Amino acid sequence: MSAPGSSTAPAGAPVAPRATRGATSPAGAPAAGGRDRLRALAHRSAEVRERCELCGEPLPDRHRHLLDVPSGELRCCCRACTILFDRGAAGGGHLRLVPHRPRRPGDFAFDDAAWAALEIPVGLAFFRHSTPAGRIVACYPGPAGATESQLPLGAWPVHPALAQMEPDVEALLVNRSRGARDDLIVGLDDCYRLAGAIRSGWRGLTGGSAVWAQIDELFAELRKEAR
To answer: Is the whole model's pTM more than 0.90, yes or no?
Structure first.
């Protein structure tokens, strides 16, 4: 999971064996041996799963992630590697485990005036403290992926939510789209999950009903999990 919306084939994905390519009966159908091999190949292909980017173990659909702090990329990791990197010093500051503990930032919330002052051009954004940049970074997801805002964030450093977030790996996810009023502290991978859904599902100028249903579903899930 190197970037929001990216899609790469798993390492070692099987390809059609050379002997089965073009192996046909006189009637043009695959020969009996070729059919058996193709069925076995299809079965193997269905079993290929995303793998841990550290040890190569197969991963379940829902799994944890490590942040490569200097590059800002996320790496998928298995349970064993999650346990290893759950110790703060394990990654030497280079790789950090992204926590999964969605929560509401106490009494803090952006009112309309504070949100307008940030001059974010869309109704969805996430904010995190970037150690490499040495500042708060604002990103907003869109059809092209997650875009970093180049606008100064003004009074943002005084907001109390900053002290509640783990630098680099947690973010304040804000939703002001279509009348919503959501403020949640989430792992960076949830922000990338949102950005990936928007990038892959956006249609036309307004996005379309399908992508907004995905966005609503994701926020409902995070609200349910939030402490």
So the answer is: no
